[in-house]
Specification:
The chain is α/β, with parallel strands linked by helices. 49% of the residues lie in helices and 10% in strands. It binds iron/sulfur cluster and Broken Fe4S4 cluster.
């Protein structure tokens, strides 16, 4: 069986330069530890490691007496802590960059979206009267930074959730207080000999995940929009075919646009372009991998070379003169992999160095200067290129569907509103909305589950919103063009897409931009006609090929926000039927959302479609109904 649905990947995998790929290493790892996969291995203290026998024949408790459900819940909560920490530390860096933009104009950052600044400042209760933009930005950055260390809550962005939702969180005692506090409390409660009740552990797990979605991630998204602009629909291209044969190829990889935005500026700098020409290159071609690629795609239309599992293959083309990485999702193999090619790998974050790899520390205060230094490394390396093998495959797409862009697209600039979306859901043209997000995982064929699931959803008139590597997967398969509606969407969704001129699959950005989906869901509730809470909406979420702790945090904040969420690949909870049932069944009674796991995209789609159908029935909108516009005669006939 082919490793991927993507021909560019399969082509490059047939060629070998002695460097091992993630697929080879995954095979060498087999069989993987069953206890770990089932979530019942504990190494929290050194009386262990302990493991619970899922077949009931061996030990049923750890040395300390911890049961399977306690071990599985502690492991799960610690994954949430890891994911929430990653997203939130990213958010903190963006807040620092906003402060830098105000205090050190020479650094290169500028405030691009003042309307968004005023709006966000409003959530922090900042008085806007008689203040300069820079002063408001300074106060906003300081207020955002304070959210991390706050000791008593609630976090400010919580007010954006529907009231019914906030009341559920309040009743359960899971309204997040400070972002860092919630992550620390997970680590405390799950260390040896503290919280020994799986349900209580998960209350904190939910609180920390909410501190991610409605806290750290939302801070990252909103402040990035202030600094770099709020995305709006923009054309772009995707897949390895975007690499250039005759230009200097720079690939940015990781997550934080605080770096990649500056590389965009440096790569367009006249001095850099002249230097590139002096080395025989026709220009500088900037592309990206993973979420930092999504960030610059959405704001500049810069091409995306690929998603998570394509990071090594981009190097294997022989055409990448430098790969610039910051934080998250960067495979440890890249240092060794690049040594088999001419590619210079450059790490840039003091938090993320790699053995034997060039490190150029990127600081917000010398951002543009450092970006130019990094771009120069790529240019100087261009003459060292050997044979290149760039697959021809690339695809057009339209990206940039921020919450604000959707408002504008549906309602125009004077009456931007979600009413047309809600109306189309009520009249049944659109059956519901699905968020399909997350990573790739070599345990499952690359991109297959993303693409097949999304095709099935849109064929059933479900509008799909995407982020992360899942978005890149579907873009490569041509699902993010307006024309895709004609080819793949069901009749109702097709009609709406054709009227508005939008694709049936909307790219909303990077992993932290899942917070945009939370805002959109809240807006759907506020707009009316679809219930009082997010859990009433005909919506569902999925991460079909997840691998990162960040995906678990995202999944949990969607569930805790009231969304039914299906994961593919597997979940490390099956070793404890008690904990599995808590996630899959009991949580729904508490928060209105629940987890599910299905192995195949067809099963995932069936669960999501069924869930959306049930929600429609509950709302009383399961039968297609057109809104009737009354003329005068009909009005006269009305009996009052
Ligand atoms: Fe074993 Fe308990 Fe220590 Fe975990 S905390 S390693 S179950 S003794
Ligand atoms: S980059 S977290 S592999 S989506 Fe956000 Fe892709 Fe998953 Fe990383």
């Amino acid at each position: 069986m082919e490793k991927s649905i993507d021909p560019a990947v399969n082509e490059l995998l047939k060629k070998s330069n002695g460097a091992s790929t993630v697929w080879q290493r995954a095979e060498a790892m087999l069989p993987q530890c069953g206890f770990g996969e089932l979530g019942v291995c504990c190494r929290i203290c050194f009386m262990g490691p302990c493991r619970i026998d899922p077949f009931g024949e061996g030990p049923q408790v750890g040395v300390c007496g911890a049961t399977a459900q306690v071990i599985a819940a502690r492991n799960f909560a610690r994954m949430i802590a890891g994911g929430a920490a990653a997203h939130s530390d990213h958010g903190r860096d963006v807040a620092n960059a906003l402060l830098t933009a105000v205090e050190n104009p020479d650094a290169g950052y500028r405030i691009k979206d003042t309307a968004k600044l005023y709006k966000v400042a409003g959530y922090f209760n900042i008085d806007l009267k008689n203040k300069k933009v820079n002063d408001i930005a300074r106060e906003t950055a300081i207020a955002a930074l304070a959210e991390f260390g706050q000791q008593t809550g609630p976090l400010r962005f919580i007010q954006r959730a529907p009231q019914a939702r906030r009341e559920i969180w309040q009743r359960l005692g899971i309204t997040p207080r400070g972002i860092d506090r919630e992550i620390v409390e997970i680590m405390h409660r799950t260390t040896m000999g503290v919280d020994q009740e799986h349900t209580n552990i998960m209350l904190q797990g939910m609180r920390a995940s909410l501190a991610d979605g409605w806290g750290g991630s939302m801070v990252a998204t909103e402040l990035q929009d202030i600094l770099f602009g709020t995305p709006s629909p923009i054309r772009g291209q995707v897949n390895l075919g975007v690499l250039s044969e005759n230009e200097v190829n720079i690939v940015v990889h990781g997550h934080e646009p605080v770096l990649s935005e500056m590389i965009v500026l440096a790569a367009r700098d006249e001095e850099m372009l002249a230097l590139a020409r002096s080395k025989g290159a026709a220009g500088i071609n900037l592309t990206g991998i993973c979420c930092t690629a999504n960030e610059i795609l959405l704001r500049h239309g810069i091409a995306v070379a690929g998603n998570f599992l394509q990071q090594e293959l981009a190097v294997a083309t022989g055409a990448v003169d430098a790969m610039i990485v910051d934080v998250q999702c960067i495979m440890a193999s890249l240092g060794e992999f690049c040594r088999h090619y001419h590619t210079k790998l450059v790490t840039t974050s003091p938090k993320a160095k790699m053995d034997g790899v060039t490190h150029i520390e990127f600081t917000e205060h010398e951002a543009l200067e450092k970006a130019k230094e990094i771009v120069k490394i790529a240019i100087e390396n261009f003459p060292n290129r050997g044979a290149v093998d760039i697959p021809k495959h690339k695809m057009d797409l339209v990206a940039g569907f921020s919450h604000e862009a959707i408002l504008y697209m549906l309602g125009g600039s004077f009456r931007g509103s979600y009413t047309p979306l809600n109306d189309n859901i009520i009249n049944g043209r659109i059956k519901g909305v699905a968020g399909v997000v997350g990573c790739n995982n070599p345990k499952t064929p690359h991109d297959v589950a993303h693409v097949e699931l999304v095709k099935e959803l849109i064929a059933n008139d479900i509008l799909v919103v995407q982020t992360g590597c899942s978005g890149i997967a579907c873009a490569k398969s041509g699902l993010m063009t307006p024309e895709a509606a004609v080819q793949f969407a069901g009749p109702g969704l097709k009609q709406v897409c054709e009227t508005v001129g939008m694709p049936p699959v909307l790219h909303s950005g990077s992993c932290v931009d899942n917070s945009r989906i939370l805002v959109a869901l809240s807006e759907m509730v506020t707009t009316g006609g679809l219930g009082n809470d997010i859990s009433d909406l005909p919506v569902a979420g999925a991460a079909p090929e997840w691998m990162s702790e960040k995906a678990i945090s995202i999944g949990q904040y969607f569930v805790a926000s009231g969304v039914f969420t299906v994961f593919g690949v597997g979940l490390p909870v099956f070793g404890s039927p008690v904990f599995r049932d808590y996630l899959f069944k009991d949580l729904e009674k508490l928060v209105g959302g629940s987890w599910a796991m299905e192995k195949t995209p067809a099963e995932m789609a069936a669960r999501m479609i069924d869930h959306i159908r049930k929600k429609r029935e509950k709302l009383g909108i399961s039968k297609a109904k057109e809104r009737v516009l009354y003329d005068m005669e009909m009005r006269r006939e009305l009996v009052v």
